[in-house]
Amino acid sequence: MSMKAVLAYSGGLDTSVILKLLQERVGAEVITVTVDVGQQDDFTEIEGKAYRLGAVKHYTIDAKMEFTENYIYEAVKANALYNGLYPLSSALARPLIASKVVDVALKEGADAVVHGCTGKGNDQVRFDLTFKTLAPQLKVIAPVREWGLTRDWEMEYAVKHGIPVKTKAYSIDENLWGRSIEGGVLEDPLTEPPEDVFTWTSPPGKAPDTPTYLTIEFREGVPIGVDGDSMDPVSLVKYLNHVAGTHGVGRIDLIEDRVVGLKSREVYEAPGAVTLITAHKDLERAILTKRSLDFKEIADSEWARLVYQGLWFEPLREALSTFIGSLESAVTGDVRVKLYKGALSVVGRDSPNSLYDFESISYFRSVFDQKLSTGFIELFGLQAVRANRKRLKGGRVQQVV
Ligand code: ARG
After folding, report:
1. Which of 40, 230, 288, 349 is most buried when burial is the number of CB atoms within 10 A of its CB?
2. How many Cα neighbours within 13 Å face the side chain of 137?
3. What does DSSP say about strands 139-141 and 112-114: parallel, antiparallel, or unpaired?
4. Residue 176 Cα, ligand 1 centroid: separation in angstroms?
5. Can you give the residue ranges of every domain in the chain?
């Protein structure tokens, strides 16, 4: 009996070549799965291509809502930015795509699951680990890595086998949460990203001359509406991508540390992600206590690192999500942002749970008992002041410069 393999199929060169090779080299019966996470592709065309290249069955799975609610919104709660800048768009989608491939493999009684990632990147780690975690009995095949496929070889093979090839200047990965662009002239880290890498964002200099103000409403850490209109999660993210992108917000140029140890340069467009994370973080600053904020920053950055590294199913990632979720139950309120010529600024925030107290902080009122501060400072700095006594000489501490 021939082997049954389920391939995560994007319709691109790598996975198209793999679809053919699996039949040719291992005599596999191949089932293809394309997961819609908001990439702007023609899914009917992809399906047609899969069948033309010999797939015995094809699945197109719309996972946009699941992606937004269970992955993107978890990332919003965690203010997730890898290396401080990358909103993890590609990284978040991988465990979801891989889990859909596993679902199909189990339903179809397949023997193997297959992905088209190279042996140099992060995506192979994310796919492999999701496959191995969810269904350890399935064989994982990664042809690009295992069979040493190179771009040139693939191009030649594609031409020979009637696989349509488009010459592309960059390697692009896209979903609702962002666009990742890598390769081509971007491989020279000194080169400024040319305008043709961007499709979601206007050049900031050519963005509208009048700013747009938006009020984003959050409930328990996640956005639920904009400017008084409640919106479903997918529409909300799409809407912010559009509005913030028009104003040139959300361009990121990053030298990042890959899991395998290489440094790479990737350019991202993530207008909605940057807007939501910035607004959410601001709202948290008004609501959470100073101690919670300090500690959450550590939890947030570890959450982002684990997700980047393909460790979505690592117990620590899940435990951090639980911890973050418990603080987020208070994060309800409105944030007003201004979008203008590539810049995003938070210009106002309001929450029933805000710890900001106008009566105490105002220069104009006096409900705060200032006399309490005298004793507070005495004890607060007690050790620091005492520790310097030893350096007292001639009535004055000699300062370290
Ligand atoms: N560097 C990003 C990550 O590891 C994106 C990877 C996919 N990028 C691409 N242009 N194909 O998450």
Report:
1. 349
2. 5
3. parallel
4. 14
5. 4-169, 173-350, 358-393
Q: What top-level class would CATH report for the domain 4-169?
A: alpha beta
Is domain 173-350 given the CATH code 3.90.1260.10 in the classification? yes
User: How much is the pTM?
Assistant: 0.96
Which residue's CA is minimally distant from atom 1 of ligand 1? 266
DSSP category for residue 323:
H
Per-residue pLDDT reduced to its tens digit, 246-280: 999 999 999 999 999 999 999 999 999 999 999 99
pLDDT in tens, 206-237: 999 999 999 999 999 999 999 999 999 999 99
> What lines the ligand 1 site, CB under 6 Å?
90-91, 122-123, 171-173, 180-182, 266
Nearest alpha carbon, ligand 1 atom 2: 90
What is the DSSP annotation of 148-168?
A: T--HHHHHHHHHHTT------
pLDDT tens-digit series, residues 375-395:
999 999 999 999 999 889 889
Integer Cα distance of 135 and 103 in angstroms: 9
Residue 350 is encoded by which pair of tokens?
């309001």
